[in-house]
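Can you give me the bound-state structure? Components:
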Amino acid sequence: MTLKKTFVAGTMLAGAMTALSFMSAGAAQAQGELVMYCGVQEEWCRAMVNAFERETGIKVSMTRKSAGEVYAQVKAESANPRADIWWGGTGDPHMQAAEEGLTVEYKSPKMGELQDWAVRQWEQSKQRTVGIYSGALGFGYNTELAQSNKIGEPKCWADLLKPELKDEVQVADPNSSGTAYTLLATIVQIMGEDKGFDYLKALHKNINQYTKSGAAPAKAMALGETTAGIAFMHDIVTMVVDKAPVKVVAPCEGTGYEIGSMSLIKGAKNMDNAKKFYDWALTADAQKLGAEAKSYQVPSNKSTPVPPQAPKLTDIKLINFDFAKYGSSAERKRLLSKWDNEVKNLPK
Amino acid sequence: MSRATLGWIVLGWVGFALLPWYGFERSAAPTLADYFVSGSALVHGFRGAWWLLPLLVPLGMALVPVVRPKAESKGTWLVASGLLGLALIVLQGFTIGLNGWTLDILKGLFGDPGPRQAGMGYGAALTSTAFLIVLCHGLAARGWCRGDAFVTSSIGIVIALIIVFVFFPVSTILASAFADNSGNFAPVEFVTKFLDKSIWGLDCLTSDLRCGVAWNTLFLGLLVGFGTTALGLAFALIATRTSFRFKKLLRVMSVLPIITPPFVIGLALILLFGRSGALSAVLFEWFGVPRSRWIYGLPGVLIAQLLAFTPIAFLVLIGVVQGISPTLEEASQTLRAKSWTTFWTVTLPLMRPGLANAFLLGFVESLADFGNPLVLGGNYEVLSTKIFFAVVGAQQDQGRAAVLSIILLAFTLGAFWLQHAWLGKKVYTTVTGKGDAGLPLPLPRRVALASYLTAIPWALFTVAVYAIIVVGAFVRSMGRDYTPTFEHFLTAFRVERAEWGLYFSGSAWNSFFATVKVAALSAPLTAAIGLLTAYLLTRQRFSGQRSFEFGTLLSFAIPGTVVGVSYILAFNVPPIEITGTGFILVMCFVFRNMPVGVRSGIATLSQIDKSLDEASLTLGAGSSTTMRRVVLPLLRPAIVASLVYSFVRAMTAVSAVIFLVTAEYNMATTYIVGRVEAGEFGLAIAYSTVLILVMLVAIVAIQLAVGERRLGRRSASTASSPVAVQAVP
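Here's the bound-state model for the whole set.
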């Protein structure tokens, strides 16, 4: 019997060692700690963490995930929250979390320094989430392919319907991507619901692929896999800065935008530190880290220098985006299922 | 009373009276006193946690047979003690939570909020285990499994682990299939969600509309299942039955795809076959083949999955093909069967368990695969990505994800039953103790030809894909800017010399160390539990065996996203509160990858004649010696397969871990996914090449440590070959 027992005992020992080796988490430091879920690019997250640690001595444990993933996780953890603050990522999931009471109200002393759109977001969410950056929706095209396909220079949403662009436009599926949902809501707000859906049906003929991720069309353009692509303009700018033959377009009819947001998690174990971070993240010093980390969104603090590469919100015709209506889960479900039934299943 | 039983009873007391019953807060710094006595259930019990004190009753009951060692009632006392102990622990654990009573009824009866308690710690874990083992020993004493306490304990442990780490979390999320968004029971909503046209529509048969996602998934799964089995068989036949010169190389190459992090194969395929891909450019310029996007959709996903999962089929089949005894084939030839007839009627049927298992794994892997459809799927939708985006996408509809998971689960289980029906009750034993000095027959000419024609182009194709990957790691931006650079490696893996030693300043080091640690810990655990389960399933007979087998397969069948979310739902609150630790990652990997250990173990074990075990036992060896000297050495290919697979999987899995990673335990794949999302393909590919190297080293190390199986057959070099001559048809 001995070997069988050794076998069992060995397995158990390995199991116990595993448990032990992981549970010896480091002791808290003098200044306390902060658990942060970060919804933007790794560099930017990392830069924020380092700067905040240097300034306050608070130890930050940061996990980077996409906004939808953070939302799903915060919701799943709501009985025993692990995170203190959720910083970054597109506004819809933040609004959704606010609606479901997963986050808490907070009025920062820095509110006066913010742009109107950031304050409006905060008011619409009943003080539960605040704008930290924003980015306009737009499209881009691969200049080399546009030349060889003789497409000219598309300038407006309407130009994307040109027959020369058949099978040459890429956009994400609004069911999976917040970017594409922003497109859906934007078109509906610019053209009205009926005309808007007519537009989307016409656009469907030119779409070669509904991607899963919102930024994928930007990459596909850079690689030459598609001629035109619809995405957030700062995502396309990242490709341009990387020297891809891509041109960014701010549509002439006007366009919608996202507000990257920040929320305090309800039941946070380090609420005081989370509030410290919240106040700090709204300062100009903290917000200028974005451009340094090659993220070209427009910061929400009025006195933050806007990076030169960033698409200027003043040059873009922004619509008055109704985040309260189009961010609510009922309206979103309705629009998405309408899009599924009327647009996505159309024959090409 | 055996010493083992006594030991476990003592451990049960130790867990209750000495070790800390509750887990520590993550930010707390426990002192030595917290570890011993003062945090124990006994002390807590007398200080107000009255619900822990009833546990003294079953602990006392276990002592009865110690004090009064009378044979008849011994087992009954142990069984009663174990059952009562486990029941009490489960009862108090699930009714008293972090914020008081967990059930509304109790709140109404005894007042809100009621007593509180934290998650279980070492003490609780040890005592629960002790109760379980005591129960199993009791059952053995009452004559279960021929009174073999080792067998009953093993079965008990595996069942308990499966219940805790598979059934419990999965049931929490599947329950949400029957709930509406606010969590109320809504069966009607389930039916509407289930019958949705986007799932079951058949429009693609009659028009150019799309078919439902369920049919897409099934069709892809079947293609991949057949494809991987055929390719795997071709590789396995070449590796074992021919004198092909580059066998070793072929082996390495066929294993490469399995150790490739997700997205990378898809990315490489785009860079090769995409509209502006390298091969498309050549075809366009030389032959005028117009550039198109054919790679996005079914063809792309199919190719990527064939590349990725053929190695699994190969790993399963090579053990089986090696194990087939030449005796039967020689007998067939002596009876004047031509070599083709022999292959078709003897060799191939003997491979059935291997073929069926390889097919099952390919099919299930294809169903659960997430990375390839994400990158290459185009407009061809499959269940796994649908489920992921039902959870994290703009819909944020967990119920829908659960409904889709149920469909996915049904497909997997269907495949499982079909496989069983096909294998039937036939016997596939070929490794017996009898004189078996035959030389494996060379393949009939057409089989050899077919194998070569399948395997070699495929191997070349694999080489091309990997060439792209290697190049991608060393150029600035693959597909656009081919300036050579080390930039990507420096960003990820920079090491600086500081005054106090080396400082790992690269951005990937953290996740790299965490990944290696988790993978290295989960691999041996996975292999041990998987092979133990396989041993129980093939060598022991007990009631409920089939549902036991089904339970082991369950976690494999459920898509990673669902497993990830369900692990948070189940393990974020007491009694088992382990989210945020590395432990949960290890457990997640162990139970997701265990089925491969089980499958390859079963495939190999069903070839090994029981009479070998019996002979060893008859000659006076204990069952431990039998296991060590006879069974385990014959199981070597299965051990290698499950160790390699679980190590590799722990390093490359994405969807399940996205929700489980924390700042401390970030995994390499989530880092890579983040890079791919940000469009930094170069960095993602560079990191992947490093991971590939690490895994290659690990595989070689595992091979060396476990060693080859020797079946005591003549090798081709020493044999003058009268047999080989007959091979010419």
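A couple of observations. Strands of chain B lie at 96-97, 100-101, 475-477, 481-484, 495-498, 501-504. The longest helix of chain B spans residues 509-539.
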